[in-house]
């Protein structure tokens, strides 16, 4: 500690700068301030806004995902609008109807790898994203990372990767399963009240997640109830990288 600030010496004459991992926790030593440890604040490092607690431990991350609204064009199109929001984060000039047609597949009954009965699941969104990305010659690809844990989702955010997930409208309780379908060895249930949103950040100290919601806008949710709904509705998740 020097004059009330912490530094990390790698030798008698050299201070470390940049990221430092100690005891499973991440700290940031700011090169613009001579290697002083960042503490008790949010600070951008690259494109990610990180939160550091009073001890300097990184306890949150946030990326700037837009929250285009699904109304009035797509009252039942939250999945495609969530994807459009995520694509816009990566610099693509999407609108709230960009994915709906021609990227998304449609069906009378298959709600898993296509849109049917008022919604769709992660495989349909992954495939729609990759159709869009391929058509634009992008090297980015969507990945279905269904089953990701809370810590997995936080890890993606720490590296500037937002995550589209399936949960519930306004973070309320899930309804009943109005349809079920096996696909790829996994059983998918289509719950009433389900909703797809983009997780764009988290704050461990406050116990919240930041989401880009095509109904509510950019809002915060209780992390515990949010992830409970995420697991209840099948822990579906899609990332682009």
Summarize the structure in short.
With 241 residues, this protein is of the alpha+beta class. It has helices spanning 78-89, 122-135, 150-158, 223-232; strands at 18-22, 25-30, 36-37, 41-45, 48-52, 58-62, 142-144, 163-168, 177-183, 186-191, 194-203, 208-213, 217-222, 237-240. β12 and β13 form a beta hairpin.
Which labels suit this protein?
alpha+beta; 14 strands; 241 residues
Task: Give an overview in words.
With 241 residues, this protein is an alpha+beta fold. It is 19% helix and 32% strand. The chain contains four helices and 14 strands. The strands form three sheets. Strands 4, 5, 6, 7, 8, 11, 12, 13 and 14 form a nine-stranded antiparallel β-sheet that branches. 40% of the residues are buried.
Shape: elongated
| Uncertain residue segments | none
The number of helical elements comes to 4
- Helix content, binned percent: 10-25%
The Cα radius of gyration reads 20 Å
Helix/strand structural class: alpha+beta
Number of strands: 14
- SSE pattern, N- to C-terminal: EEEEEEHHEHEEEEEEHE
Strand content: 25-35%
What oligomeric state do these chains adopt?
Answer: single chain
Helix and strand topology:
Elements: E1 18-22, E2 25-30, E3 36-37, E4 41-45, E5 48-52, E6 58-62, H1 78-89, H2 122-135, E7 142-144, H3 150-158, E8 163-168, E9 177-183, E10 186-191, E11 194-203, E12 208-213, E13 217-222, H4 223-232, E14 237-240
Antiparallel strand pairs: 1-2, 2-3, 4-5, 5-6, 6-11, 7-14, 8-11, 8-14, 9-10, 11-12, 12-13
